[in-house]
Amino acid sequence: MFTEADPMSSMIMPIVEPLVSPDAVDAGENPWGATTYVGRPRRTRHAPRADSEARAPSDPATEAAVQVADVEPGDAPAGDAAQPAAPTAAPAKGLMANSRSMALASLASRITGFLRSVLLVAALGVGAVGNAYNSGNNLPNMIYELLLGGVLSSVLIPLLIQAESEDEDDGLAYTQRLLSIATVALGVMTLLVTLAAPWIAAAFVDAGPQRQLTSIFATLLLPEIFFYGVGAMFMAVLNIKHVYGPGAWAPLLNNVVLMVTIGVFWLLPGPATLNPSTMTTAQVLVVGIGTTLGIAAQALVLVPYLRRTGFRWAWRFRARPGESNRLRELGSLGVWVLGYVVVSQVGVSVIQRIGNSNGGFSVFTQADLLFQMPYGILVVSVLTAIMPRLSRAAVRNDHDAVVGDLALGARLSAVALVPITALLIVLGPVLGVTLFAHGQSSYEGARLIGTSLAWSAFGLFPFALVMLQLRVFYAMRDGRTPTLINAFMVATKVVLVLVTSAVFAAPPGTDVDRHPSVHAVEWLNISTSLSYVVGAVVGQILLARRLGHLRFRSVLATVTRIGLISAIGAAAAFGVVELVLDAIGRDVTGSAVGLVAGGVVGLGVLGAVAWRARIPDVQEVLVAARR
């Protein structure tokens, strides 16, 4: 929901991935079935792997980090036997196949997640009840990331990998011990935080019925923290055993459970008009417990796949001698990881507080969901195909190759996202009404989602550019610079949100849940997009200092050409939408017809002009992406 990049695995994996021993896996052995070793850990050294043996990443965000771990044949430690030359690169076909597989899982998850969000808005609306639910549901995400998410992401996987490489039992006992300690810590932390739910809710929501409902939702939803943590641990174990599919598809089950929950909610008797005072106890319990059950299912569905790897759970707490030293190498980067998370959560907290005070936190949430869908569907999986080349070039200190791949990734993002940006600007309002003006959501609230999306759509390409820049820094094993870039972004967003909230605040006494401060709510998303622009500029400056001339003239040329063509298509779409709305009416039906007609005409005109212009950048980028 909040779009600061997750740096954890990307930053740490390049350091520790070379420690993994592929011997047992290559030999077809099952290391988890070995006898547990209880003595001093065994220290082993392994020859570097060929690029063709590199592991598939667990998600697109970690692709660069995993590929950086590929060690060149000449990098073998002194004293090791000479190794035969390895293939220089993994087959492009296999890489693209992995990218398509991860993209399919991401697409299915995003589509079902989008349907889930549409149903939630129809069931709860975007007023007081929707804001209370989204506030309560955001708390476990925020607290988990702040208190434990960074530790699990940045420390757990490296420690498991090192144990697998060094221990006689391939890390089985150490994995059992680490998971036992983490599970107990998660349980205690979740219990304490859940007991403190009323006080936590009071920090984000003003006194009144909405705070009371938020407090109840928080009590029901904060147990998600435990299942977030357990799921992260299960995914870590699966990933180091080369099992990636279950973790990629697990969010789909969560979405299905929540959609079923909404169906049950609609079957319950309840008031015609939903608000915090009239919502029945049964309705609150169904929504709250059902949401938590979805997260629990997402975590527990991984258990059968763990058993298939041969892993068996056993409670262990006593540490071996010397195991405490395994954290020392990660200490420096861990500080920057924590700094990144803390900075991000400052931005999250301010958005949530200001959004609730202006009656628009749910509006921001749904607009941000729509904003991120084009990037997640069109760009992430394709950029994954570029990251191995970029990462290997970073390992070799081949700055020319890094700059070339950075420019290619930026141009590819522009080709995919600039046309979408233009269409979202003109189609955003009718899109919001078509999707969300149902059930408890009013026409005005749904249109506000659409206008917030339209005004903030300009940030889509800068957002993709920032994500690409951060991956370059992670590939170079730099955790400090991404944190600094994130600090600039969050500072920009916080200042803009606070200033615009003061400027556009509703008059005292206004019921913002019924009449939200429209411009203040829109500026939540606008400020977020402007922060991406700032992040892209700062990242460009810092990359230029590190790598020299970035040769971004070709990127600007591509953006300009695609932007002009997209503007023509968007203008045609806007004209059609206005004609349809004037003819049919500015209601849900008119918006739906205008969305379809405007989208078809806009895309048709855009495609025709692009074909006529024969822009070489599009063909060149597509050919490069297929490589």
* Overall mean pLDDT: 76
- Total of helices: 22
Major beta sheet, specifics? none
Find the structural class using helix and strand composition.
Answer: mainly alpha
* Cα Rg: 25 Å
Instruction: Return the string of H and E elements.
Output: HHHHHHHHHHHHHHHHHHHHHH
User: Portion of residues in helices?
Assistant: over 70%
Distance between the termini: 32 Å
What is the tally of beta strands? Answer: 0
Runs in which pLDDT lies below 50 for 5 or more consecutive residues are 1-96
Beta-strand percentage range = under 5%
Shape: globular
Explain what this protein looks like in three dimensions.
With 627 residues, this protein is mainly alpha-helical. The chain is 72% helix and 0% strand. The chain has 22 helices and no strands. It has helices at residues 8-16, 23-26, 63-68, 92-124, 128-166, 172-195, 197-202, 209-221, 224-240, 245-267, 281-300, 303-308, 331-357, 361-395, 399-436, 443-456, 460-475, 480-503, 518-547, 553-584, 588-613, 616-626.
Present the secondary structure layout.
Blueprint lengths: L7 H9 L6 H4 L36 H6 L23 H33 L3 H39 L5 H24 L1 H6 L6 H13 L2 H17 L4 H23 L13 H20 L2 H6 L22 H27 L3 H35 L3 H38 L6 H14 L3 H16 L4 H24 L14 H30 L5 H32 L3 H26 L2 H11 L1
Properties at a glance:
single chain; 627 residues; mainly alpha; 22 helices; 72% helix; globular; disordered N terminus
Q: How do you describe this structure in short?
A:
The protein is built from 22 helices and no strands.
